[in-house]
């Protein structure tokens, strides 16, 4: 009976939620809803007290985003120096992901009409149906032109269904986010790098390197499509950690 929930019931409920391996945000939403519900019940005198009023979740530990150092990026790009259709696709894929910082899911959904070579801008359909324009530089432009002119044509010839997605798999079908992740995994295995690559690592590298080279935090926020500046600020911690590491490595008194 919801009218007789006590502190022990709440503790049991929290334990059960934690066993389900739910995200902290999901648990927080559930607790918030129940707290509001019981606040209403106390107001209309259905219950005498709110058992969820004093429930506090442990603070979340924020892990710094993993990224590639610039020398590691160069080594990664050496794996796509070939001229086969898949090499051309992979080169364009790396150049776009690293050169724009767009999400893997945004890259997978990119269509031909979202690419404007005249203005060197990509129209990105981001989270929450929010559109933004992201510039893509000389290297990404060149890689994309080559791929769209040659490699993509060859791959599309293998597909019976025509479509306008930029990036395709070996059968000419639209690539998926999981497919991009698989490609990145295979490329990293061709290097001497020991990093376990994850889908957003190139995005993290883009943001970190932009800030390292003096980009304004607001600019990086807009390019990444973050709704809140606080989300982007995590990358300032990454660059500070990087700077401290370099200082400890090279400052004479620490050698």
From TrEMBL:
Classification of source organism: Bacteria, Bacillati, Bacillota, Bacilli, Lactobacillales
Main location: cytoplasm
Signal peptide annotation: none
Keyword Ubl conjugation on entry: no
Core-binding (CB) domain mapped to chain residues: 1-42
Protein name: Integrase
Pfam families listed in its UniProt record: Phage_int_SAM_1, Phage_integrase
InterPro entries linked: CB, DNA_brk_join_enz, Integrase-like_cat_sf, Integrase_catalytic, Integrase_recombinase_N, Integrase_SAM-like_N, Tyrosine_recombinase_XerC/XerD, Tyrosine_recombinase_XerCD
